[in-house]
Amino acid sequence: MDALELFCLELPKVELHAHLHGCADVDRTLIPIAKKAGKRDELEQLEVIRKKETRSLDDCFRLFDIIHTLVVDKEALRKLARDVIRDFARDNVVYLELRTTPRQTEFLSRQDYLTTIIEVIRECEADASLDIMVRFVVSINRANGVEQATEIVELVLKTLAQNQECFIVGLDFSGNPLKGHFGDFVPVLEAARLAGLKITIHCGEVEDPDEVFAIAQFKPERLGHALCIPDDLKQSLFFHGDNRSAIECCPTSNCKTLELTHIRGHPHLENWITSDCPVVLCTDDSGIFNTTLSKEFYIVAKEFKLSQSRILEFTLRAIENSFASTEDREVITKKLWAQSHL
Asked: Where's the Adenosine deaminase domain (predicted)?
């Protein structure tokens, strides 16, 4: 481990784009769950994938399928959430916004799912051995339609009304970008916004100028990925104007899904980090893509020859654009300066 890699590991970090299921570690989480559930086929596939030095895009998609097959009851969901939070804490992530869609399974209602995640976050917050603050961003899966989205938002608002200390700070709009029309979901997103929730939207994952324009008009606090952006919107979305939103950039994930051989091939990253664009580095699906936030920092810092102070700016910008309360941001910032040694 060289000096830069060590610096990135030891630096207190802030993760703003982490999908719960996608962050499942194969060895620590998925294989034990598969063994306990007696899922032989899934276990065999996991054993094959874990032995590979690099994972293909097909491997990644297969892992998603396996995870959704395995995590169907409260015990598995609790283990998944606990392990993911511990993994981020181990990587010196001091603030984590964990996102997931409340799933209904044979053994779980959406309310059960939501309550379980909140319970695990509360337990981890109370665990003195874990130096991490966790907040919950509830995801809407566009592929599942407006009716389900409405049901989820109503459930979230009900939960907030019953318990302000439920750790829910925002809403994520994501899912298959080829399914559903963003405009159909605007009323339910507006309802969440009126209730005080911040909004992050997966944007520009495929070429769709009309949708990008509609999202820009909605003015979400943050954008996920933002890869396929029309030229006439780049300035207002990334650099200037009232529409500007923070960009959640996930380098390894983007390289994998865009089938890039090198980080330099990323369509916007170099421009983002050499300008005043409010970009933050994230992992997306750390378990699926076999990465950590420290690795993401290191990859970008090494490739673009960033100084330690410039690397530190990524965490400061992430704090600034987090959905945390003012008080929580102050706590995180103090921790950063106390531990960064800069």
From this structure: 12-336
Element spanning 270, H or E: helix 269-273
5 is catalytic: no
* pLDDT value of residue 13: 98
Q: Which of 14, 16, 9 is nearest to 246 (CA)?
A: 16
Residue 237 has pLDDT above 80, yes or no: no
List 15, 42, 97, 205, catalytic entry: 205
Measured between alpha carbons, how far apart are the two ends of the chain, in Å? 20
Could you read off the pLDDT of 265-307 as tens digits, one per residue?
A: 999 999 899 888 899 999 999 999 999 999 999 999 999 999 9
Distance CA 171, CA 192 (A): 7
Looking at CATH, the fold of the domain delimited by 3-23+85-104+130-340 is given as TIM Barrel (3.20.20)
**Nearest-CA neighbor of 179 among 216, 218, 224, 144?**
144
User: What is the number of alpha carbons within 13 Å of residue 275 lying toward its C-beta?
Assistant: 15
User: Domain spans of the chain?
Assistant: 3-23+85-104+130-340
Q: Which of 231, 233, 227 is nearest to 213 (CA)?
A: 233
**Stated pTM of the model:** 0.96
Q: Structure tokens of 255?
A: 């390289």
Nearest-5° Cα angle at 140, 138 to 145: 155
Enter the tokens of residue 181. 């029309």
Give the Cα separation of 108 and 86 in Å (integer).
Answer: 23
Distance CA 241, CA 249 (A): 20
Q: In what order do the strands lie in the sheet with 279-281?
A: 13-19, 93-100, 133-141, 168-174, 198-203, 222-225, 246-249, 279-281
Q: How far apart (Å, rounded) are the C-alpha atoms in residues 252 and 289?
A: 7
Q: Is the dihedral of CA 272, 274, 277, 281 positive or negative?
A: positive
